[in-house]
Each structure stands twice: as structure tokens, then as C-alpha cells.
TrEMBL record:
Belongs to the ATPase B chain family. Component of the F(0) channel, it forms part of the peripheral stalk, linking F(1) to F(0). In plastids the F-type ATPase is also known as CF(1)CF(0). InterPro entries: ATP_synth_b/b'su_bac/chlpt. Pfam families: ATP-synt_B. Its main location: membrane. This is ATP synthase subunit b, chloroplastic. The chain crosses the membrane at residues 32-49. It comes from the Eukaryota. It is a single-pass membrane protein. GO terms for molecular function: proton-transporting ATP synthase activity, rotational mechanism. F-type ATPases have 2 components, F(1) - the catalytic core - and F(0) - the membrane proton channel. F(1) has five subunits: alpha(3), beta(3), gamma(1), delta(1), epsilon(1). F(0) has four main subunits: a(1), b(1), b'(1) and c(10-14). The alpha and beta chains form an alternating ring which encloses part of the gamma chain. F(1) is attached to F(0) by a central stalk formed by the gamma and epsilon chains, while a peripheral stalk is formed by the delta, b and b' chains. GO terms for cellular component: chloroplast thylakoid membrane; proton-transporting ATP synthase complex.
Length: 184
């Protein structure tokens, strides 16, 4: 105990004890000051620090929970979007296949219609040619018949005299009369 009182008594003998000044001996003053400040901070600030850390921990946990919920929601939306994309791709493939088959069907129908139209046109052409041939043949027959008739009339007119003409008429009248008797 004597040592403790000696230390306080010796304080009175310091020349700068009554004035304010800086103690430049870092090793003597700094660890003591730091230990006192840390002790006070730990004693009084422990509750406040715990509260601050608990609040921060709760905010971080709630942010993590919200992030997890948002992630789950985003994953669900992504899955729905993928399912919708698969459905749309299948429908597009179906439309494409139906379109191709429809195009092929229309192509076949068009080819068949064109073929039948060409066949009908060919038939019309053949009928027209046959009709024109028959008409030409008939015209040639009429011309030949008229020429033959004119030639025969010319020959008859030049060869027939009135006596031969009279005998021909009489013979024809006789034939007609015989035919009339047979029919009666």
C-alpha cells in the first residue's frame, strides 16, 4: 500500500502537474487510454452494438428471403415461358407442316385442273378440226356435185335433141305409171 501512496505523492512533485500538456511517451499513455476507452465501449456499447448487429442481420436475412422468393418467381416465370415457347414452336411446326401439305395439295389440284383444262382444249381443238374437215369435205362435194351436174346438163343439152328429149320424158312417164299401178 505504501507503493500506491508513494505514486500519488510523487505526482505532486512533477513540474508539469499543474498545467496542461502532452505526454509524448506513447508506450506509457496509449495502451492505458486505449484499454480504458475499449473497456467503456465494450461495457456501454455492447447492447447497442448487439442491437445494431441484430437489426443488420434481420435486414440481410429478409433481403436474402426476398431474393430467394424473387428467384423462385423468376424460375417459375422462366419455366412457364419455356413451356409456352415449346407450345408455340409445336404449333408453328404444325402450321408449317399443314401449310406444306396444303401447298402440295393445292399444287396437285392445280396440276389436275390444268391437265383437265388442257385435255378439254385438246378435245375442243380436235372437234373443231373434225368439224372444219367435214365442212371442207361437204363444200368440196357440193362443188364437185355442181360441176358434175353442170357438166351432165351441158352434155345432155348438147346431146339431146327434141326427139331424144321426148322419148326420155315418155319413158319416165311410163315408169311412173307402172309404179302407180303396182302400189294400187
Amino acid at each position: 500500500m505504501n507503493n500506491v501512496t508513494d505514486s500519488f505523492v510523487s505526482l505532486g512533485h512533477w513540474p508539469s502537474a499543474g498545467s496542461f500538456g502532452f505526454n509524448t511517451d506513447i508506450l506509457a499513455t496509449n495502451p492505458i487510454n486505449l484499454s480504458v476507452v475499449l473497456g467503456v465501449l465494450i461495457f456501454f456499447g455492447k447492447g447497442v452494438l448487439n442491437d445494431l448487429l441484430d437489426n443488420r442481420k434481420q435486414r440481410i436475412l429478409s433481403t436474402i428471403r426476398n431474393s430467394e422468393e424473387l428467384r423462385r418467381g423468376a424460375i417459375e416465370q422462366l419455366e412457364r415461358a419455356r413451356a409456352h415457347l415449346r407450345k408455340v414452336e409445336m404449333e408453328a411446326d404444325e402450321y408449317r407442316m399443314n401449310g406444306y401439305s396444303e401447298i402440295e395439295r393445292e399444287k396437285a389440284n392445280l396440276i389436275n385442273a390444268t391437265s383437265s383444262s388442257l385435255e378439254q382444249l385438246e378435245n375442243y381443238k380436235n372437234e373443231t378440226l373434225h368439224f372444219e374437215q367435214q365442212r371442207a369435205i361437204n363444200q368440196v362435194r357440193q362443188q364437185v356435185f355442181q360441176q358434175a351436174l353442170q357438166g351432165a346438163l351441158g352434155t345432155l343439152n348438147s346431146c339431146l335433141n327434141s326427139e331424144l328429149h321426148f322419148r326420155t320424158i315418155s319413158a319416165n312417164i311410163g315408169i311412173l305409171g307402172a309404179m302407180e299401178e303396182i302400189t294400187d
